[in-house]
Amino acid sequence: MSIAMIPPSPAAPFSVPYEKYTLGNGMRVILSEDRTVPVVSVYVLYGVGARSEEKGRTGFAHLFEHMMFQGSKNAPKGVHFKTVESNGGTLNGSTHPDYTDYFEILPSNQLPVALWLESDRMRGLDISAANLANQKDAVKQERRLSFDNQPYNTAIVDRWPELAFRNWHNSHSLIGSFEDLNAATVEDVAKFFRTYYAPNNAILAVVGDISIPETRKLIETYFGDIPAQPQPNHPDLTEPPQEGPRSAVYRDPLAQVPGVVVGYPGPARRSPDYYALVMADVVLTAGESSRLHQSLVKGKQSVVRFEANPGWPFQGPSDYKDPNVYALFLLHKPNFTGKQIAGQVQEQIDLLAAKGVDARELERARTQLRASRIKEVQSSLRRATLLAQYEMLDGNPAWITEELGQFLAVTPEQIQAVAKKYMTPEKRISLEIVPAPQAAAKESN
Amino acid sequence: MRARFTVLCLIGTALMAQSVDRTKPPQTPPLPAFRLPPVSESQLDNGLAVALVEDPRFPLVTVRLSFQAGSKYDPANLPGLSQSVGAMLTEGTKARSARQIAEDLASIGGTLVASSSPDALTLAGSALSEHAGTLIDLVADVARNAAFPEEEVALHKQNRQQELLAQRSDPAYLADEAMHRVVFGSHPYGHIGPTAESIERLDRHALAAFRDRLLIPNNATLIVLGRLPERARMLALIGEKFGGWERRPAPEAPQARFPEQRKTLVLVDRPGSVQADIRVARRAVTRREADYFPLLLADNILGGGASSRMFRNIREEKGYAYDAHSELDARRDAGLFSAVTQVRNEVVEPALQAVFSELGRMAAQPVPAAELDDVKNYLTGHFVLGLESQDGLARMLNMVKVMGLPNDYLEKYTPRVRAVTPAQIQAAAERHMTPDKAAVIVVGDGAKIGKSLEKFGKFEVTKADQ
Known about the structure:
The structure holds two protein chains of two kinds. By secondary structure, chain A is of the alpha+beta class.
């Protein structure tokens, strides 16, 4: 007997059926039914993010995300958390460069509860001075916890965007400064709500153990009469043409191990180059068979670990509309400099540009991508987020299954071409993060 | 099941046809019944326990191979050994180089990672279902034939030193380290990772000796779930790959005493910290003890989510923290209960006071009926939410095996949560939560917060960089 007794069967397809429509007030709705587990995910995405902020108001989109949990007309402070959790569910919200999103995952019999809560806060928020002051504190505490008291994160969240982008809307700190947070008034918050948290600037996705006709009725009941608002303006996010490489050094008092961020401005979303760049990223960085793992962690033994993706430091390419930077973050050994590491990464990219990929390597990359997409969509929340994000970013939720075909069709020549076109030393942006613990000791004395 | 659900929805619709009352949460029907997929259990002649679960939702297969070989089995002079064995299993076997393993995995859309918990070392793998056979072959190869090549061990040691430096620059890691040391003392649960010295001492003989002693079939459980080939073929393949694996004398679990619980105050001085990381922790129960379910409910009432007491008080009312929660980590030989928050330096005193007061209240007063009902719904609902992915299901099944729980544990989870009374919760909190016997750990800038802490008693001070 041998392993051949279970021969590889043909690749099984996967599908995510869905229905999309628009309410009279302009709110877009996407529904997807899957009765296998009695769970439902409700996901609401608003077309406003940190890049929508104005000067002097950095951190506003994120502060506002917190205000969305501070109470609405019929669900006062604490009721949102309590209602979801006491019905067996979980919830959260998050702020991204180009959108802000909210979700509830609940046992499926509780769907009306989630729709009641989401519609109540879309209808009107309790924007009081006390709630605002309290959430300014929570946001500042979040900043201290997740950034100011952590190695690398200040460099990544504050310094990296400044270096990577030239347009202020793209380059300012996404979590914002304490000064700007302090300056936010109740009137600012109310205006922000009216402008951006309107049904015509929102997408609702409901995925899981639902009946589509019943869910349509519930959504019409809860959301149908929320009035539309004038369509908000979006700032011009265009980046000026790049004039040569950029680099900087950040001395991190909390870091012990040196790191470097290496980035290259990427192609436009959904252009043919975009798919090729994602495939180049898989070949370079996905898993331990990747070129960077084999050449730098193993071969040169210079890098301890790394992460990379076309939306870094966010989770993936769907965190940004254009413009976007493909970036890698590498922690390395102290006997190498960040410059040397950036050079070693460049060598690998240059090799890809010069010699391309062989057939087996490309086949592996395709299989990895297919598997990771199938693993991803097991979760109803992930299906809901992808459907809504593709609707917002591309106007087409069908990318949830169709996108894979675009990636799988990328040719070795296209991968070689994007490496040559985008990932050159002239276009490289790098940020060295140098441990400076002595500086911390000195400051604290 | 589906028919019943449809009827319930129709009732819902009839109500909606009238104008909806927005002032109150909608009334909802009961949750439709849901049963876990059946688990088919068997055992090979060499003692390997096998559990197969057909879960056809997605074209994937998920594997767990777990051993009673977690960090509590680390020799005293080699803390971190179990972790290192886990990391090195996939770095080369007699038949495959590290690179070959990585490429074979990529070719089947697979991942395979070994991780070490206090009790168990678990190989967790997944792949596209059409490659189930290759995944099983890889799991068997790394579990049985790891070669621990000299040059890979040397590289692992270098990188682990750097990783340790990076971990120890994170205040949460420092807090966990001190908490385990105080709560578990010299018991092997008292360490959470290696030291620079133990990494230095590590060599391939130590790795192989640990593997030969503990990674044996009669000390292991194999779980395979997903869209599987027909059962007889699957079992034949498992027999082929694991059947020749030799049984050895089963190792004894380390027996060590836990220190007596008494109030212990520790400040880990981290100059430059802009906030203070607080842990108030006690040794608690295992899942086999009668107090487990009452304590699980107590833990969730206190700090289990955004409507828990700690979150409401410390974050939402006082604005001291972004994160305020509690955890119950129930292991095989003991549990660890901890209340956790990170606060700005100026409020460390009232924040610690607030944590103590919430802990005291759990023991002093019975939980009101409505609050108890809410937390029961929270826990039973979350249980269902965890079943969406193969990984979630595999994690639950593996927990039952690793903790040595009866097979009906998952089935009985919901009724057991439902049965807990306020008096049981109060008694469990009195025995396992009160601050008078707790380890109180604060990681922060001693120059800035030392004075505020004096009010609670004498803190033992350790340095962050030691």
